[in-house]
């Protein structure tokens, strides 16, 4: 065996291990966010203060990243698009999710969010001119059926809670966010875009600033650190890890790992909070994920042309809480 082949093999193994570590880090951080939100809420923080403290922490991480590595500034109309997507995919998504988790357990929330690609496929048909084949359309219908079961199941199988509607709103905004950011990946890096989305998305959250200092003074240190954790790691560091994973392994293989997110979120919620979703929520979640798999396997018949950055991040709804 030549020296060059040995060197190539060692580099390949190094990249494989980098991808494995990056995927594991991403999955654990994103999956833990759902339980982290619930933990902060159960500790006495209001939803508004949780989401603001979380994204002030995430914004600070991206400021440090920008100072150390530099960052692309969106140009012209792209800046307006990035701002609008930040308000949609960060502000509305996370505010609705956090308020929703007042009454919905972490596992059910993760299952509802896991159905976001079904909404994405439908919106892409309208906005990007994509066409689904028969299996794709069946997957969308199956996904929506699973969402309906989970939505009812969140209320004990007899009623739909307001929290379930809010998390469903999060799933829809995640789909809009994903479709809207697609063309931008042809011009900007994934981490750079995520930083700008986060900064713009944090601005409306400042509405919840009154009383934050007093809330932090009265909250336990553990509760405050949970808010910081879900900001620094699931909302910031995980995106860097995701970009590393996509550059170290085939994108399709890496993306398929996101199917594990609901399972991990349920497990973490059980270990951390002692919570488990109800039977209807779990059944609906399995059906919804099956629908998402059908949509992803079928794929669109025709896509709008654009060249995606190899480090493209998934939508917020693909796994992040």
Automatic annotation (TrEMBL):
<feature type="domain" description="EamA">
    <location>
        <begin position="162"/>
        <end position="296"/>
    </location>
</feature>
<feature type="transmembrane region" description="Helical">
    <location>
        <begin position="106"/>
        <end position="128"/>
    </location>
</feature>
<dbReference type="GO" id="GO:0016020">
    <property type="term" value="C:membrane"/>
</dbReference>
<dbReference type="Pfam" id="PF00892">
    <property type="entry name" value="EamA"/>
</dbReference>
<feature type="domain" description="EamA">
    <location>
        <begin position="19"/>
        <end position="151"/>
    </location>
</feature>
<feature type="transmembrane region" description="Helical">
    <location>
        <begin position="135"/>
        <end position="156"/>
    </location>
</feature>
<feature type="transmembrane region" description="Helical">
    <location>
        <begin position="162"/>
        <end position="179"/>
    </location>
</feature>
<dbReference type="InterPro" id="IPR000620">
    <property type="entry name" value="EamA_dom"/>
</dbReference>
<comment type="similarity">
    <text>Belongs to the EamA transporter family.</text>
</comment>
<protein>
    <recommendedName>
        <fullName>EamA domain-containing protein</fullName>
    </recommendedName>
</protein>
<feature type="transmembrane region" description="Helical">
    <location>
        <begin position="222"/>
        <end position="246"/>
    </location>
</feature>
<keyword id="KW-1133">Transmembrane helix</keyword>
<dbReference type="InterPro" id="IPR037185">
    <property type="entry name" value="EmrE-like"/>
</dbReference>
<feature type="transmembrane region" description="Helical">
    <location>
        <begin position="51"/>
        <end position="68"/>
    </location>
</feature>
<feature type="transmembrane region" description="Helical">
    <location>
        <begin position="80"/>
        <end position="100"/>
    </location>
</feature>
<keyword id="KW-0812">Transmembrane</keyword>
<feature type="transmembrane region" description="Helical">
    <location>
        <begin position="253"/>
        <end position="273"/>
    </location>
</feature>
<keyword id="KW-0472">Membrane</keyword>
<dbReference type="InterPro" id="IPR052756">
    <property type="entry name" value="Alkyne_AA_exporter"/>
</dbReference>
<feature type="transmembrane region" description="Helical">
    <location>
        <begin position="191"/>
        <end position="210"/>
    </location>
</feature>
<feature type="transmembrane region" description="Helical">
    <location>
        <begin position="279"/>
        <end position="298"/>
    </location>
</feature>
